[in-house]
Design brief:
single chain, 319 residues, alpha/beta, 2-enoyl-CoA Hydratase, Chain A, domain 1, 3 domains, 9-stranded mixed sheet, 3-stranded mixed sheet
Amino acid sequence: MLKGENVERKRFTTAKIILFTLLGVFLFFFIILPLGFVYLIGSFSPSSSDVVGSGNVALIPIEGVITTDGGSYFNEQTISSKNIVEFIEDADKNSQVEAIVLEINSPGGSAVASDEISIAVKKVKKPVVAMIREVGASGGYWVASSADYIVAHRMAITGSIGVISSYLEFSGLMENHGVGYERLVAGKYKDIGTPFRELGNEERDLLQSKLDVIHEYFIQEIAENRKLPLNKVRQTATGEFYLGVEALKLGLIDEVGDKETVELYLKEKHNIEEPTYITFKKELGFFELLSGVFNEFFFHLGKGISSRLASPENKVMAV
């Protein structure tokens, strides 16, 4: 009996050693090492400001999904409307800046955030040019339309004047696995849009009416900004995206081209002989880099855990 206890104790000790070893490896590679890496970046990288260079033209990149708060979430680059609005206002106040160029590469994002940037652009007293490189769609085009002049690459994805608020609904999956949704609300629309039950017809009509209102705001803004007839914009506002060459024919942009085209426009129309650029761009600080490291880690950790759920034999496919 004593011999059996010793064997069991040895097994327990061995299990503890293995457990603590695995825990130590986990802590080192996924917490200590990332922290040290971020610290080294913060220690040895030169401090960077929001403004790079000096020149007579302010270059403001608008890259990624437009949101009100910005940040980097799960490999999806986003931009903050608050930061962009501040850059626009600072460039407008800068006595050395003669014009502003918005370098747009965005599929859109929040309607509120896009409108905030658009309002700021229209308040600028200096010439504003929007340059759509690869994508200037939805909210990205909303922002571009508020500029005085729009230049887009001939193959750039442009327009997509529409609103979307679709989501996945899991009620059928839950029912198949014996999971129920106990609905407790005060106010019959309080849980409207929950993925745990189907939308009722009345709820679907209600949500659609909200989207239609936002869509109409979008249409009116484009018509006003581009000085186009409302009916003409409404005909193109199907959510379809247009290539740069198509957008030119529809009056959605002013010229097909690139950065040289923008510079030629500034020289000929605004007498800026030699455009030189001062770039306004938000740089991530230490804590933002740290947050990004942990976001990346936990995203991939969750992805690994969920991969089993998303396997073909479980009939749940990741989209």
